[in-house]
Amino acid sequence: MPVAGPVAPPIPKPATSPVVALRPGVTIVTAAAEAEGDYESFKRVVSVDGDGGYQLSYTQRQRGVVRTFGRRVLGADARNGRYYKARFWEGDPETIAGSTAIGISRGVFNDLKAGRPVDLRFDYGGSIRTVSIRLASNPVRAVAVLVGDRSVMMPVIDVIGGSGADMVRGLFLDDPANPLMLSLAIGANGEAKVRVVRIDDPKATGATLEQALAGKGARAELPGIYFETAKATLLPQSRAAIDAAGAVLRSNPSWRLAIEGHTDAIGGDAANLGLSRARAEAVLRALAESGFDAGRFTSTGFGESRPRAPNDTIEGRAANRRVELVRLQ
């Protein structure tokens, strides 16, 4: 059975924001539901060119192995590319002319908003198809995404096209500067589905943590902490969050913190409890290895016993997989 304890407070009521700025360090976390749990991929913005192109560090699991690739989208393609290459595979060149990587191009967005259908190539799961997409007649207007530790209601354009195995339904951020993919389903019944579950910006993490932990007993999520699926192995993308937490600790040398791990409800109670404890311990070790006295921290895990959101959706499970900091002193 899960460890007893109070239920975590719910995620704050969603705010509304149409903008996700593409700047170095911003990380987009995409989840796909699988029987053994949610498989996540991570797209971190490395740099942004003056002409609107961008460089990504792209991490995903392939055949049970976590791999990281570089991906560059040209400025011309960010403006008018007609090939949405949603995944990247070992052996692919870093730059693929005509393609975008994290959403549709601004030209495709503008055509759709004007009511014009668009022939768009999709690459998902290694299968390439060209589908004529258009605005849905009964559209979804907004979806909630975790931005740091907040749930933000993001306005979307809802597009649909194709039929049968080639049917596509996509929700893209309603922002002409960055029409980011937030949800994509392919197949008559949405057999292949991915969803952006969180967006983290390490530049905002330090100030947010310091404010949230201003008083003894205060609690805050540490956003930007990523683990291998069903493991307590920190991914390299977590480095920015560890560094941000370290900067706050250096500015507040008297603080002592409890590090708490939490999981979703996929898997058994005992396994989740052990996983949450191991993940909290991994964060403690990372802080200690950064030069902090391990005596400033305690670590524990609560498994699935303190959910922030229902576990029956991809986005709810993403909210429940988290590491929290509690100020003890």
How does this model look, in words?
With 329 residues, this protein is of the alpha+beta class. The protein contains six helices and 18 strands. It has helices spanning 75-80, 106-113, 202-212, 239-251, 269-289, 314-320; strands spanning 15-16, 27-34, 37-48, 54-62, 65-73, 83-85, 99-100, 118-124, 127-135, 142-147, 150-161, 168-173, 181-186, 192-200, 219-221, 257-262, 297-301, 322-327. Strands 10-11-12-13-14 form a five-stranded mixed beta barrel. The protein has a four-stranded mixed β-sheet with strand order 15-18-16-17. A hairpin with a 2-residue loop joins strand 8 and strand 9 (127-135). Helix 3 (202-212) runs parallel beside helix 4. The longest helix has 21 residues, at 269-289. The chain is globular and about 60 Å long. It starts with 14 loop residues before the first strand and ends with a strand.
